[in-house]
Amino acid sequence: MIAIGEKYELVISSMRVLNLLEAFKNNKTYQMTFDKIILFDFYMKFPQTMIREGNDISNFDFEELYSFFHAHPDRDSYHRILNFVRSKRLVSKEILNSSFIYKITEVGIEIVNDIENPFAERMRANALLIKKNISKLSDTKIKEEINSKSLNNIHLL
Asked: What CATH architecture does domain 4-156 belong to?
């Protein structure tokens, strides 16, 4: 049986992934692979650290302050998240050029667009910032940025 905290984390993580995939839905040249989802989700999970770059500790929650512990994500957790959203038919998985590509379905788009609250709006805005600014970087550069910015939080502790 799954604990309540694990269910909550699965739902929140699924919403972050759905928002990412929704932001990239019309981008025919950009392919959302498993590894890209993991990298971009770090920005979604820790927006104050990765996107907003603020030093105001009042904007940081516990997770954000200790984001450096998550700089190397649990790949099994992402398989579970993607399997969950695929089982709900919110995301499809295709093979393209010898890679698995994830795409949001029409049902997934409806779910993302139907949720209206400040948290969902921030997730959508963050996903669009990732599409606009971060997606242009190489995977190596993104990993360097994740390591560097997440370690910067140590001085806030």
From this structure: Orthogonal Bundle (1.10)
